[in-house]
Amino acid sequence: MLHDRVLVRLSQEEGERRSSGGIVIPATAQVARRLVWGDVLGVGNSVRNVKQGDRVLFNPEDQLEVEIQGEGHLVMRERDIHAVATERTEHGTGLYL
After folding, report:
1. Is 60 in a helix, a strand, or coil?
2. Which residue from 21, 26, 83, 85 could staple onto 57, CB 3.0 to 4.6 Å apart?
3. 59: how many CB neighbours lie within 10 A of its CB?
4. Is the pLDDT of residue 4 over 80?
């Protein structure tokens, strides 16, 4: 990856979800502007806050799709990432968002 770009693979958590009240929400339900989690596979040399292997939260509708070895991935700028979930401990106690 070049500059401030990040290569992300969507998490395979698609499908039915269950609300906190126990209602099953089917995968085909339309939800307005839902953010999703993905796994970082590669980062450019100007990326400062995201490392390969981190899980990131982002809007998949605003990103560019690319196919690598038959699998779909997304390419985005670092600034388009809303949150990072990581287990790196050098700046804190563990998982942070």
Report:
1. helix
2. 83
3. 14
4. yes
